[in-house]
Amino acid sequence: MPKVMHLNLRVDPTQYIPQIRDIPGYDYIHLVRQPKYMINLPLLNERVHYLSEIFSPKEYVKKNKIALLHAHHGQLGQLLLPFKEGTSLPLVTSIRGRDATLANQPVGYLDGMKLLFEQGERFLPVCQYLAQQINMWGCPADKIRVLYGGVDLNLFPYRTPNLHDSQNIISIGRLVEKKGHHILMQAFEKIRDKFPKATLTIIGGGELEGYLKSLATQLNLGTSFRLLNHVPKSQIPKLMGQADLFCAPSLTSSIGDVEGIPNTIKEAMATGIPVLATNHAGIPEIITNNQDGILVRENDVEHLAQALEFMLLNRHLWESYTISARQKVEQNFDQKKQLFLQAKYYDELLGGS
């Protein structure tokens, strides 16, 4: 069984573990830069290694019988270039969002990416939008294969949307600017008079936690608003199941950071929760407006408030939206199918069938 050496940012459940450890027909080594990035101890095993402890890439590759290299962000692809020297191993690099922008990147990042485009064999952006971005930067089109991230459909079974009178809105994601939670909170405040029973729950942790709590006080959201952090990933399906409406108000941040396609959108669509999101980056590739959800302009409080009101007043549309959404996820974002597709992309490079 061919062995792939994967380098990703951290070892934790949010870091696409199946795309490293569950590829059909492939063994793995799970590399992170330093021991401090070994975040989740239950995921520690003898196949977790540290880049900082490798002194001779060529000897390491030979000793561990590596057949292929896979970096799971653009900046990590640059770190794996030395492993190609003297080994001729194919290098695959996933592109996930910020790595296709200059947002908060070090000096020389774009030059490093251009070198990576020249020397790397395959690039796997997580959506067509990011594929176009790296192509504009100079990545040859014949090296690009879009690989959507998949959802474990067993963890997110479909249930018919709640058509009763509860009005629980949920949003899940890191508390950073590009997630747009501050826009959602302002839009929610605008509809509260018409929907006094409505609630808004934001789940996530991050640098904007203090700001969002202050904003909630400023907007006088009171008990209608909850901010939950440190929620285990295993609890997300249960919390989604309690929601009536999912909102992903993603936007391009002030420094140019963008999304690919948030996994939480895929999970909500799989579960049968009506989804309202922004026309941002790769999101229109999963949501067709007025067919399997609603799309609004990003960074637009008024438009988002209007869409929230529309969704809450037109519950009769929810079931058709969610059936279409579940079909979309099953067709294009099923984790099992996407892992087989990833294996196929490896096979292309290694001469497999």
How would you summarize the topology of this molecule?
Layout (H helix, E strand, L loop, with lengths): L2 E5 L10 H4 L5 E6 L15 E3 L6 H8 L3 E4 L2 H11 L6 E5 L13 H11 L2 E4 L2 H10 L30 E5 L8 H11 L7 E5 L5 H10 L6 E4 L7 H6 L3 E4 L14 H9 L3 E4 L15 E3 L4 H13 L4 H15 L2 H16 L3
Helix pairs in contact: 3-4, 6-10, 9-11
Task: Summarize the model shown.
The protein is α/β, with parallel strands linked by helices and 353 residues long. Helices cover 35% and strands 15% of the residues.
Describe the protein.
By secondary structure, the protein is α/β, with parallel strands linked by helices. It folds into 2 domains: 3-150 and 334-350, Glycogen Phosphorylase B (Rossmann fold, 3-Layer(aba) Sandwich); 168-332, Rossmann fold, CATH 3.40.50.2000. It contains 12 helices and 12 strands. The strands form 2 sheets. Strands 3-2-1-4-5-6 form a 6-stranded parallel sheet, sandwiched between helices. Strand 1, helix 1 and strand 2 form a beta-alpha-beta unit. Helix 6 (181-191) crosses helix 10 (301-313) and helix 9 (263-271) packs across helix 11 (318-332). The longest helix is centred in the C-terminal third of the chain and has 16 residues, at 335-350. The protein is elongated. The two termini are 13 Å apart. The relative contact order is 0.13.
What descriptive keywords fit this protein?
Rossmann fold; 12 helices; 2 domains; alpha/beta
Query: Could you give me the name of the CATH homologous superfamily of the largest domain?
Result: Glycogen Phosphorylase B
**CATH class term of the largest domain:** Alpha Beta
Instruction: Indicate the CATH topology of the largest domain.
Output: Rossmann fold
Strand order of the largest sheet: 3-2-1-4-5-6
Shape: elongated
Q: Provide the residue-averaged pLDDT.
A: 96
Structural class: alpha/beta
- Spatial extent as radius of gyration: 21 Å
Give helix and strand order, one letter per element, not per position.
EHEEHEHEHEHEHEHEHEHEEHHH
* Number of β-strand runs: 12
| CATH architecture call of the largest domain | 3-Layer(aba) Sandwich
How helical, in percent, are the residues?
Answer: 25-40%
